[in-house]
Amino acid sequence: MTLWFVFALMTVAAIFAVLWPLGRAQNRGVENQGSEVVVYKDQLAEIERDLAAGLIAAPEAEAARVEISRRLLAAAGTEPVPESKSNLKWRRAAAVLALVGLPLVAVAIYVPLGSPALRDFPLAQRERGVGQARSLENLVVQVEQHLEKNPTDGRGWNVLAPVLERLGRFDDAVRAYRNSLTYNGESAERRADLGEAIAAAANGVVTAEAKTEFERAHALNADDPKANYFLGLAAEQDGRKDDAANIWRALLAKAPADAPWRPLVQSSLARAGGGGTMPALSDETIAASKDMTEGDRGTMIRGMVERLATRLKQNGDDVDGWLRLVRAYLVMGDRDKALGASADARQAVANDSERLRQLNEGLKNLGLDG
């Protein structure tokens, strides 16, 4: 109540300062006008005295007399019309009405729309307009003060964490995300958000701690896009570009056509070379290939590619299989076979618009747009 009383006094004082002149008769103009006329008359008299004493020449005296006379006439011609008592009465009535009415209108608007507890507020709307960053920081301070008094308010932590991250306060964002998990419970989204904040605090490096959070998010939801993207980024930063490309390719294959993060994943996949080597082999196959000669290893790989091609001719609905086949031919340096496989793949999935979209997207990432 004390805070609201202070606000009310400040409002009344501000309105009173603005409206006070409305309740007073305006006599200052008359006083100023009268003082100017007296000054100009004194100046004319002084010119006559200087001319009589021989201090100035007659032409100079005449020029000065003309200029001062012009100013005297102008000052005398601006005499204000005395304000009627009825106008003064109406202005005072308007001042009283504003003094009483404005606070009532403000309260009437605030009651249905305001919320002094600040438990929830439209961040998206408050970020718009001039002074966006400053307004956002002021809101953050208020929410932080609220959370200091109510540390178990999970909803408040959930709102605060992404805003702190947007402001670049990554360490504070990490703490807020941890509190959000504590008071809101486990979810793939919250784990992935926490991992992202940890990576941002490390200048974009997916640290072991961040990777653990993304793996937890993936365990909760294998299709979580943020977790899968950053797990691919972790693989790329570890030098496992093929693994990163495979993760991102699988992510794109399941992504909606209008997913806002598709361009980011596509550019990352292009950076990784689109998975510029053969698809990952099983552990048994890799162990067996270590003792092979280069020629035997090449024969084994070609055999695997031919078996994949045969399988796809029998069942052409496997988009990922077609993309692996095309990529294998490109790695082997046989672009003609890659183009032929692309044509066969498009023909095989021509009646399924979603599979055809995924196929064309994958071929585009491999550099085969046509």
Automatic annotation (TrEMBL):
Residues of the signal peptide: none
Sequence intervals crossing the membrane: 6-23, 93-113
GO cellular component: cell envelope; plasma membrane
Cytoplasm keyword on record: no
GO biological process assignments: cytochrome complex assembly
Superkingdom per UniProt: Bacteria
Keywords: Cytochrome c-type biogenesis, Membrane, Transmembrane, Transmembrane helix
Compartments where found: Cell envelope
InterPro entries assigned: C-type_cytochrome_biogenesis (IPR051263), Cyt_c_biogenesis_CcmI (IPR017560), TPR-like_helical_dom_sf (IPR011990), TPR_rpt (IPR019734)
NCBIfam families, alphabetized: cytochro_ccmI
Protein name: C-type cytochrome biogenesis protein CcmI
High-level lineage: Bacteria, Pseudomonadati, Pseudomonadota, Alphaproteobacteria, Hyphomicrobiales
Encoding gene (name): ccmI
